[in-house]
């Protein structure tokens, strides 16, 4: 695969979620004015009916031909959005490895939240978590059958916690809202700790619940003020709503995904208050959200096996 493709990359395996990802990626490529690369990865070790060293050139040829047919159908579908938009690549590798390699130069990688195409060994959706963890560009995870895109009436929702990944998520969310004409909704969710570190000794023996709640809310509001300053400096004309809510971050963002065009979240993060750790919710959102989820890394963030 070319290492200098700077457009939108979408993984495809013929499944319904990957088809939804293909359609979403094609529309997003048009919005960004970028080319689209469709990647179909075949893991021959899983696809071949016998060990690789037994020699089965006929089987490899048939698998590659079948994969090429699936890929050609995907390209034809994407070209209905823009005939000059699409290039394609057939990769003999795992889907995760192929998409992470593509992310090194891509502007965006798009995957289905799960999938199983007609070709054995192209389990795309099962690698969505691995791609979000290791990708070196933002990753959009699309639910099967979803046609949701940001725009008027379909806001861009971003979760914030004050971390570098959260700042990067805010920047990406602003760009999405600006391009699509959508409202930007910035959400800082917080919880109040009710148990201590030793045994079951409650925090309430030391601090009244009201005092803990006030402290947590104050920290969330400080995080929102940081995000507000960032938004206003770079995108002063955006229609923006800032909300602090006492709720589990994953639940707060999943609730808003019901009407959102997209939910944007940092891949991992740590705010000023222990309950505001945001990055750990990206994994849950991929399962819970009803809208596409865009996972963003901090620019200098080390890549990990955890999303």
Automatic annotation (TrEMBL):
Species in which this protein is naturally found: Pedococcus cremeus
Taxonomic lineage: Bacteria, Bacillati, Actinomycetota, Actinomycetes, Micrococcales
Source superkingdom: Bacteria
PANTHER family cross-referenced by the UniProt entry: STRESS RESPONSE PROTEIN NHAX, UNIVERSAL STRESS PROTEIN HP_0031
UspA domain location: 8-143, 156-297
Transmembrane region(s): none
Annotated InterPro entries: Rossmann-like_a/b/a_fold, Universal_stress_UspA, UspA
Name of the molecule in the record: Nucleotide-binding universal stress protein, UspA family
Family listed: Belongs to the universal stress protein A family.
Pfam families reported in the protein's UniProt record: Usp
């Amino acid at each position: 695969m070319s290492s200098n493709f700077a457009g939108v990359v979408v993984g495809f395996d013929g499944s319904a979620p990957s088809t939804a990802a293909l359609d979403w990626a094609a529309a997003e490529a048009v919005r960004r004015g970028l080319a689209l690369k469709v990647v179909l990865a075949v893991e021959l070790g899983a696809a071949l009916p016998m060990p690789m060293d037994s020699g089965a050139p006929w089987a490899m040829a048939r698998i590659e031909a079948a994969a090429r047919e699936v890929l050609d159908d995907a390209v034809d579908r994407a070209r209905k959005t823009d005939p000059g938009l699409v290039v394609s690549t057939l990769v003999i590798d795992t889907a995760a490895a192929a998409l992470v390699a593509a992310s090194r130069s891509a502007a965006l990688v798009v995957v289905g939240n799960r999938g199983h195409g007609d070709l054995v060994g192209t389990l795309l959706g099962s690698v969505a978590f691995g791609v979000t963890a290791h990708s070196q560009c933002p990753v959009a995870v699309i639910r099967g059958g979803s046609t949701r895109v940001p725009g008027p009436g379909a806001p861009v929702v971003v979760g914030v916690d004050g971390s570098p990944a959260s700042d990067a998520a805010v920047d990406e969310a602003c760009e999405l809202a600006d391009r699509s004409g959508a409202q930007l909704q910035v959400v800082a969710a917080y919880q109040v700790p009710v148990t201590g570190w030793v045994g079951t000794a409650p925090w309430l023996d030391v601090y009244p619940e009201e005092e803990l709640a006030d402290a947590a809310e104050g920290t969330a509001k400080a995080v929102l003020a940081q995000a507000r300053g960032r938004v206003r400096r770079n995108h002063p004309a955006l229609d923006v709503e800032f909300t602090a809510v006492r709720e589990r971050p994953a639940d707060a963002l999943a609730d808003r995904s019901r009407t959102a065009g997209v939910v944007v979240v940092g891949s991992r993060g740590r705010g000023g208050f222990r309950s505001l750790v945001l990055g750990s919710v990206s994994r849950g959102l991929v399962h819970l959200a009803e809208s596409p989820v865009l996972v963003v890394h901090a620019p200098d963030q080390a890549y990990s096996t955890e999303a």
